[in-house]
Each structure stands twice: as C-alpha cells, then as structure tokens.
Design a protein that fits this description.
9-stranded mixed β-sheet, binds magnesium ion, globular, 39% helix, 6-stranded parallel β-sheet, binds adenosine-5'-diphosphate, Rossmann fold, alpha/beta, OB fold (Dihydrolipoamide Acetyltransferase, E2P)
C-alpha cells in the first residue's frame, strides 16, 4: 500500500466510516496518517487503577465486573455505569446518553479505557472514557506493544477505537514511505526517520520516542516554510531596482532640522535603509518598532533620500486618520527642506508646499492634484488604499512605504509597487509594523525580507502605571480616572467587539458611552468613535478630542486610535481578557506621550486566575518585545500577526514558532539545500513534499 492510495483500499473500513472520513476531507492514506494533531498531551499514560487520582487523564486496562444502565436527572439523561477492576484497584466508569454502549462493552471482558478521572460526590469516576478491546489491532503490529493510547480529537461518527485501528492499519500497511529529507540533514540534526516518527507519534513505545517524533515532524513543518521563503527571496534577488546614491547633504539637512535627536536605533535603521536603496536590487525591509518608537522619522528620512535623487515616495497607511496624521507630520518635517507633500484618500485631497496646506476640493482641484503627482511635482504622496486606484499614477515612484503592513494584503502592496515598475525596475519597499515581533517569529514569517528593529524609545518617557482591575476595584479605578480628568487630562476607553456580527463595534461602544455618560462621568464631555461613523465625523471627533473639548473618548479596538494626543494620560480597556498582550500594549502606547504620568487600567470581563496571571505581565513590563514573546508562547502567532499572515503558521501541528532553535536550524538547512539545488531538481521527494508552498511562493 502507498501513501497516495485511497482510504477505500484499506482493509477493515465500512462504507459509513469511509463516508465520515471523506466528510473530514480525508481521502488518502497519507491524509489519515498526517491528519491528527496528536500532541503529547493527547496521550494518556497507562497506569494501574490503584494509582488513579482525581484530575488525571489516564488509560487503564481493566475488566468490566458489572454493567448497569439507568435514567438519571429526572429521566432526562440515560446513564451507563461500568464497575471496573484490574486486580489492584477499582473505579466506576460512567457514560451519559450512550445507550448503544452495552453492544460494545460486555461484563466479564477486559478493555482499555482512556479518559479523565473526576471526583464526584459518589466517589472517583472515569467520565465518558473512550474504550477499545485490549487485544484488538495490536496482534497485527510487529514489535513491542505501545503502552500509550492516543486520544484523537473526537470526530462525530467515528469512535476513538475505529480511528486507532485505521491508523494502525495504515502504519503497518504503508510500504512506500520514502523520507523526503536528505540523509545529510537527518544525520546533521539528529532527526528520527520519517517512518519511525509517524509510528512513534501515534503509538510510541516510550514517551521519549514521542518527543523525538514530534521534533522530526516539527522540523519538516518549519523546513517547508523556510524552503518556500528561501525561494521567494531568491526570486526577489533576481529582480532589479533603481539604485539611489546617498543624498548626504539633503538627508543630513533633514536630520538637523528635526526638533529632536534621532535615537541610535533610528539612526541604525535609517542607515540600513539608505544602504538598501543604494543597491540595484529592490529593497524589501521591515521596520519593526513599538508604538512611539519613531518609525515615521525613519520613513521620512528615506523619502528625503529618494527626493534628493529626484524620485517620488508613496506612503500608505491603513486608515484615513493615520494617513492624515502622517501627512501633517511630514508636512512639518519637510517644511524647511522644500518638499511637496500630497494627501490622497477617499475623503481627503490635500497638498502642502511652501508652508501652505491646501485642501483640493471639487473635481477640478482633485484632477489637478493627480496630475501634479503624475508629473512628479509632488515628492511624497501619503494616502490610504485609495492610492492603488488606477487614477493615481507617478512620474518616478522609487520608494513605497507601507505603514502597519499587516493590515494590507500582499496584493494591495503589489498593486502600489506596480505603479513604480518601469523598464523592468521595481521600487524599493519599506514596510513598517508597530507589532513587536519576536525574533523566532520574524524568521519564520518574514525570513525572506530584511529586518530593522527599533527597540529603544525616544528618551524621557515615564513608564505607564498599569493595573489589572478586579470587578470590586472598578470604582477605585474610576476614582483615579476622575482625578486625572479633574487635573485637565483626558482618557481613552477601548471596547472589544461584542460578537463577530458587530464588525463595526457600534454596539459595545454605544453601550459603554451611554453607561459612562449616565452613571460614571456625567459631568464630562464624552465622545465615541466606531466603524459606522462617516470619515468626516470621525475626523471631527478626533479634532474635538485633540483640542481637549472632549475629555473621554470611547472607541473600538478596530479603529486604530492612531493619534498622538499628549494630554491623554489614561487608557482603559474593557474586556481586556479578549485581547492579546501585544495588542493591549498597543493600546497602552496611546498614552504616555506627553510629560505627564500616565495610567492604563485593564478591566477583564472574566477575572479568573489564568486571565489575571496572563494580564499581570502588563503590570510587570512595558517592553513590547517581551510581551510579544509571552503572547507567542501562550496564544500562538495569530494574535501578533493577524489571521491572514499567520495562516500558514496556524496550520502547524507540531512546530512552535516560539522555538528559536528549531526555526534557526531549519533556516540554515533550507539555505544549504537551496544553495546546491535551487530548483530541488536533485531532491524530487522533498520537492513533492513542499509542493504547495512552492506554488504559493511563485504567486507572490
Ligand atoms: P511610531 O513608531 O509609533 O510610528 P512616531 O513616528 O509616530 O512613532 O513617533 C512618536 C512620537 O515620537 C512623535 O511625536 C515623534 O515626533 C516623536 N519622536 C520620534 N523620534 C524621536 C526622537 N528621536 N526623540 C524624541 N521624540 C521623537
Ligand atoms: Mg506610526
């Protein structure tokens, strides 16, 4: 039997089981063997009954002494009890609503039972254990019998017993299990062979085998990603860009004109960008720095460098508020340098030149602005996704900056870059993110691009006092907020989405707004910001908050509260337990921007131990990279990267992108494989193994 054989060719399946497997998307033997996320925790250890304690996940082998069914809880539930003994101890297994059970489990016979032992008022019970006849299937296996019984995620219509039997049959029947890894890699990294790994991951002989098997399969998963990235990188390196010589005078003039001194990290990042732009290969660099770390100045410097060589820069931000803010910041920064800046979004068409900010209202004015961009008169164009519309064209777009890059798909980014492609040349690309990305994750996700990190914050900021507030502590926290408001400061209140149908966050924001107005701060002006407001109203709301007219701003998490309001000193987050640490840290970054002491209050909807423990990290540190690493370990990459970008990673069954060593090993292995054999012509099995990812890489 081969891995590619259909499941229907497997002995011992009936048509109903095959139908269930098909519904689960499993059609080949390979699918079946690779399907289940069999984690270490899914194995329960087989122990004698005398050692079973409450709370343990166990496998026991025991004889059914007696079996009884009855109705329980006012006859709403049927209950089956089996009194088990293994010669050393006894326990009662109970199942709810499984009347057919007595067809499979008979008194007087011995079975394996796997499940959780719980303490009830009637004594220790094994609750709803899965079961299988002790000897069945194992006779067919060669070698010692596994003392472990895998517990698969339950699937309607297939019992654990059947799944184990099928997988066991597959494992012993498959003969064409060629290892896709080159021998050098297997030996070099001390890996288990593929066939041993697959067998051990389902039915290990000792628990150590399971660990080694996991490592091997994790290696495969990460290697696949690294090979795909390596190929993407090679493809990029084969393309050409306009090389720009360092515009020393203009850039130094720009730096001197800044109202602050660049931090060392900003300086280093800027220098890395300048060096990239000097090459005739398109830059693809990610600038990663916490909120407030000063990424804008680095981007502005890069744009100045491009302008000095007579080229244009496009800066794309995810929201109109952010685009407007960048436009303002850049206008101020370039006022002395004489650059011309434009703002292009759905709602705003503006330009700044010679110290004058002009709104370009009406069709004629907008068209005029477009032609100033197309002629190259405008040096830097700031905007939203509206920049990719066909009406926007450039004379010489040489640098593309994408802020909060994870908010855009690859396609949008590419559309913008395409506007600068001419004569086979591509623009340089600088992407920015305020999500601190742990090093291992960066290598696993962004290994195909170069990374500049700004860790250091511009000096002189006080740490923000952060508190996780218990339900009882809420009033005291409001007292502290009130003291800030009385001192003339302002506050943000961030609300979570209540449910997925509420994508705009209207419900929670409105409710919270009304509650604050009605019960908590009736004497202060409170505004609200959510996705349903038209852009003009959003801007008006932001203007009133910036001017201090509005004291408390209630907003959703989806609206980037992407504003620099130094007078805001309080950040309250409702439903804080719904957010990852990295995201909470982002919210917190909205305060502490001025000279005043700032505060962050986290109100979890569920104040359980686990939540308290997790959120307490926010109290302990204000280093976004530390928090991101915790998030990665606790919640995986989804929180840090968003669904789209972590798509490939969320399919990882064995590997953790928090595992720096393995990420590094697979990266090195991928590089050395591609070095000798870029198209994998000499590694056909490996090529087949990574087939999907290769196709994805070429699509990019
Ligand atoms: P972010 O990385 O979040 O985009 P910004 O670029 O918006 O950060 O910068 C945040 C604030 O810090 C801005 O008000 C900016 O003027 C200021 N800033 C940037 N760099 C420095 C610096 N080196 N020293 C002092 N302030 C700085
Ligand atoms: Mg920014």
């Amino acid at each position: 039997m081969k891995l590619s054989d259909p499941i229907s060719s497997l002995r011992g399946t009936n048509s109903k089981q095959r139908a269930v497997l098909e519904v689960m998307g499993l059609t080949t033997v390979r699918d079946l063997i690779f399907h289940f996320p069999f984690r270490y925790e899914d194995f329960s250890v087989r122990i004698p009954l005398s050692q079973v304690e409450a709370g343990m996940e166990v496998t026991v082998v025991a004889k059914v002494e007696r079996l009884a069914s009855r109705h329980a809880f006012r006859r709403r539930l049927s209950l089956t009890e089996a009194f088990l003994s293994d010669g050393q101890g006894t326990i009662t297994a109970v199942w709810f609503n499984q009347p057919y059970l007595s067809k499979y489990v008979r008194a007087g016979e011995t079975y394996r039972f796997a499940g959780k032992a719980v303490q009830t008022k009637y004594g220790l019970r094994l609750q709803n254990p899965v079961y299988g006849r002790e000897s069945l299937g194992e006779a067919a296996m060669t070698g010692p019998v596994s003392p472990f019984l895998p517990v698969y995620p339950s699937s309607a219509g297939l019992t654990q017993f059947v799944l184990r039997k099928l997988i066991r049959n597959c494992l012993s029947a498959v003969v064409d299990l060629r290892d896709h890894l080159p021998e050098g890699v297997i030996d070099g990294y001390g890996l288990m062979s593929l066939s041993d790994a697959l067998r051990s991951v389902h039915f290990p002989e000792v628990i150590g085998d399971q660990t080694a098997a996991r490592r091997r399969l994790a290696f495969d998963e990460l290697l696949r990603i690294q090979l795909a990235m390596g190929r993407t990188r090679r493809y990029r390196e084969s393309r050409r860009a306009q090389a720009v010589t360092f515009g020393r005078e203009a850039v130094l003039g720009f730096v001197e004109g800044l109202p602050f001194k660049l931090t060392d990290d900003q300086r280093r990042a800027a220098w890395e960008v300048i060096r990239d732009m000097e090459k005739d290969m398109p830059m693809n660099r990610l600038l990663d720095g916490d909120v407030g770390s000063g990424k804008t100045a680095v981007a502005a410097l890069a744009a100045m460098n491009a302008a000095a060589a007579g080229h244009q820069t496009a800066i794309m931000a995810p929201t109109e508020i952010l685009a407007l803010q960048h436009y303002r910041t850049l206008s101020a920064m370039y006022a002395a340098g004489g650059l011309k800046v434009a703002l292009w979004t759905n709602s705003y068409h503006r330009s700044f030149a010679d110290g004058e900010d002009r709104e370009r209202r009406g069709k004629a004015e907008s068209m005029a602005l477009l032609s100033e961009i197309a002629s190259g008169e405008v040096d830097v164009v700031v905007g939203t996704q509206a920049l990719v519309e066909p009406s926007v064209s450039f004379a010489s777009l040489m640098l593309v900056v994408v802020d909060e890059q994870h908010r855009f798909g690859v396609r949008i980014r590419q559309l913008l870059c395409d506007k600068g492609s001419a004569d086979g040349l591509e623009p340089h690309l600088l992407t920015m993110t305020a999500t601190p990305i742990p090093r291992s994750l960066a290598l696993a996700v962004y290994g195909d691009l170069d990374l500049s990190v700004i860790r250091e914050k511009p000096g002189g900021r006080q740490p923000i006092k952060t508190k996780v507030v218990s339900p009882r502590g809420r009033q005291a926290a409001y007292g502290a907020v009130r003291r800030e408001l009385e001192a003339g400061r302002q506050a943000f209140v961030v609300c979570p989405l209540i449910d997925s149908s509420d994508m705009l966050g209207v419900t929670s924001v409105t409710e919270e707004h009304d509650r604050l107005v009605g019960e908590v701060f009736p004497d202060y002006e409170i505004g609200q910001l959510h996705g349903r407001l038209p852009a003009a109203e959003k801007e008006e709301m932001m203007r009133r908050f910036r001017s201090g007219e509005i004291k408390v701003l209630v907003a959703t998490s989806v609206i980037e509260v992407g504003v620099d309001v130094p007078n805001a000193t309080v950040m309250c987050v409702e439903g804080a337990d719904r957010f990852g640490l990295a995201q909470l840290h982002q919210f917190r970054g909205r305060v502490g921007r001025g000279e005043h002491q700032s505060y962050c209050f986290l109100f979890p909807a569920n104040y359980g131990t686990a939540v308290r423990e997790r959120l307490s990290a926010m109290e302990a540190t204000d280093d976004g990279f530390v928090l991101a690493e915790k998030d990665l370990a606790l919640r995986g990459p989804g929180d840090l990267l968003g669904v789209e970008q972590s798509g490939q990673l969320s399919e990882l069954k064995f590997a953790s992108v928090a595992d720096m060593d393995l990420v590094r090993d697979t990266r090195v292995a991928a590089q050395s494989i591609l070095e000798d054999d870029p198209e994998l012509d000499n590694h056909p099995v490996l090529r087949e193994f990574i087939g999907e990812s290769v196709r994805e890489a070429h699509l990019e």
